[in-house]
Design a protein that fits this description.
Blueprint lengths: L10 E4 L7 H18 L7 E6 L4 H15 L3 E7 L2 H10 L4 E5 L8 E8 L7 H11 L14 E3 L3 H11 L11 E5 L9 H7 L3 E5 L18 H9 L4 E5 L6 E5 L4 E2 L1 H12 L7 E5 L4 H10 L2 E5 L3 H11 L3 E3 L5 E3 L8 H15 L3 H4 L8 E7 L10 H14 L3 E7 L5 E8 L2 H12 L5
Parallel strand pairs: 2-3, 2-4, 3-6, 7-8, 7-9, 12-13, 12-14
Antiparallel strand pairs: 1-5, 4-5, 9-10, 10-11, 14-15, 16-18, 17-18
Length: 445
């Protein structure tokens, strides 16, 4: 289904450039409101919850969305700065019609976006997004004055979500005795994540918790974990937790300052779950490290790859009835805990494994060594199809034969730039680099 505005994670772009402009966002609110109103059953108006991250543009876009929904006759609840997964949870818990998040996740502050959650706390189905896009093609109007929507603030949003996060941690465990550095990326979890870990007993040191509207993800958080590694070492902490701007990604750091990515954290979670019962399978993406696939196979756990993007990971998890999945970037899903990826909830699952076993992250991941990956980006002309390039296809097949079951090749086109991304994974780092460059050299042949 081709969509004009919605991508894999809502509508996103540079602020002030279509479609992230106040006039379009107001119309988006109106269109979404009309679709929700048509789907509403029973009495009363539809009600949506709006949350945002800490970007300065959030004020403008929040006001535009609110106006659009009100014009469509939809009531609005405003949560203020809140993690994306918090809006998913609160929408479901409060029995609302939909949730809306104003965020561009891990992108810089100049960007922003709008993403929607259904009443069940899931990303909107394609059919609903298509219906909203169809409504965007119609002129914007306004319901009669006695039918206009109203807005009110949800004052206890943070407290409700903090309690939810804590409820996903085992009752018989606590975090006493741990010193944890929490990096909130100057983002939406700055006033939430430290409280969750502190209330479970940890001594918490906060960094990346001074948002000013312009510093989200800048040098802090899951996209820049070196700041966390330095803080953990300098404070002699036991562990570090890095979230991204809307707190749906997670990376972790051990006491030595070693960074653990989403693949390794997913391995820890699966391994821990196997101690309390069987784990049928787990889902990764095309970019998931091959070492994880090999490790799961040796553990008797099925493994499936989805397209890159937590939306696609979730789709495969639901198709197969599995509850654990994730990406190396730090999007991790535990469907028996939450309906969507949640950095805080995922961190608590890893911490429960540490506390239950009395081991460090290094010890829990000692039996998995990620294969070195080399990624080469090659500029190409618009519309370039590498599969129609005989020299590149032949070289790729030759490399795959040479690697056998000791590595793999992944070639994909960038979704945003005229680039071909050539990734080679092998047990030997030098070999991966040589082979990636061999394939890349054939692009323009």
């Amino acid at each position: 289904m081709t969509r004009k505005y919605f991508g894999t994670d809502g509508v996103r772009g540079r602020v002030g450039v279509a479609p992230i402009t106040p006039d379009f966002v107001m119309k988006l609110g109106y269109a979404a409101g009309k679709v929700l109103a048509q789907a509403k059953s029973g009495g009363g108006k539809p009600t949506v919850l709006i949350g945002k991250d800490t970007r300065v543009s959030g004020y403008m876009l929040e006001a535009a969305l609110e106006a659009g929904f009100a014009a469509a006759g939809v009531d609005v609840m405003l949560a203020g700065p809140m993690p994306t997964p918090a809006i998913a949870y609160l929408t479901r818990a409060l029995r609302l019609s939909a949730g809306v998040v104003i965020s561009a996740s891990h992108n810089p502050y100049e960007d922003n976006g709008i993403k929607f959650f259904s009443a069940q706390g899931n990303k909107l189905p394609d059919t609903v997004e298509t219906a909203i896009e169809d409504a965007l093609e119609l002129p914007m109007a306004c319901v009669a004055s006695d039918k206009l929507g109203k807005a009110r603030r949800l004052d206890d949003a943070a407290g409700r979500y903090i309690e939810f996060c804590k409820s996903t941690f085992p009752n018989e465990l606590d975090l006493r005795g741990l010193t944890i550095v929490v990096d909130s990326a100057h983002g939406a979890a700055y006033h939430i994540a430290p409280h969750v870990f502190h209330e479970l007993g940890a001594e918490v040191i906060s960094i990346g918790n001074q948002p000013n509207g312009f510093n989200i993800n800048a040098g802090f958080g899951a996209t820049a974990p070196d700041a966390l590694a330095l803080a953990v070492r300098s404070n002699r902490a036991d562990i570090g937790i890095a979230l991204d701007g809307d707190a749906d990604r997670l990376l972790m750091v051990d006491a030595r300052g070693r960074i653990y990515n989403g693949d390794e954290l997913l391995y820890v979670m699966v391994k821990d779950r196997m101690k309390t019962g069987p784990v049928k399978g787990a889902v990764g993406t095309l970019m998931t490290n091959m070492a994880l696939e090999v490790a799961f196979r040796n553990m008797g756990v099925e493994f499936a790859r989805a397209k890159v993007g937590d939306r696609y990971v979730l789709e495969v998890m639901k198709e197969r009835g599995w509850i654990l999945g994730g990406e190396g970037s730090g999007h991790l899903l535990c469907l028996d805990k939450h309906t969507t990826g949640d950095g805080i909830v995922s961190a608590l699952q890893v911490l429960s494994a540490l506390k239950r076993d009395g081991e460090t992250l290094a010890q829990l991941t000692a039996d998995i060594a990620l294969y070195p990956q080399t990624l080469v980006n090659v500029k190409v002309s618009a519309g370039f199809d590498w599969q129609k390039n005989p020299a590149m296809v032949a070289e790729t097949e030759a490399v795959e034969r040479e690697l056998g079951d000791t590595g793999r090749v992944l070639i994909r086109a960038s979704g945003t730039e005229p680039l071909i991304r050539v990734m080679v994974e092998a047990k030997d780092a030098d070999l991966a680099q040589v082979m990636a460059r061999r394939i890349a050299a054939k692009v323009n042949s």
